[in-house]
Amino acid sequence: MTEPTATAPLIVLTTLxxxxxxxxxxAALVEGGLAACVNVLAPCTxxxxxxxxxxxxxxxxxxxxxxxxxxxxLEAEIRTRHPYELPEIVAVPVExxxxxxxxxxxxNAAPPLPPPxxxxxxxx
Length: 124
What we know:
Elements: E1 9-16, H1 19-31, E2 37-40, E3 44-50, E4 53-67, H2 68-81, E5 90-93, H3 99-108
Antiparallel strand pairs: 1-4, 1-5, 2-4, 3-4
């Protein structure tokens, strides 16, 4: 059963051109609280059409566990750090899963909170 709420878990897929950039992005997403976990998978071969030509490239896929609430910030972070002109960023809703694991994802993939409002010292 899909949760329509902001805490609903998502799996986000992306690919990077090499293990070093994949590991760096994975670490940044988890350290930044945008993902509970990122699986850096074994390199694969991608075949795709780009600018009218058939291309083949070695890539490193990432499986990113996050929430709907964190998605916008996660996408922005991927776009900022990604070396491709048009990175693959695909979010898939999680239909079912081990409840305790999904709770862990919800707890560990929270969008960053805005900084607290500062009081105006001149008003005091």
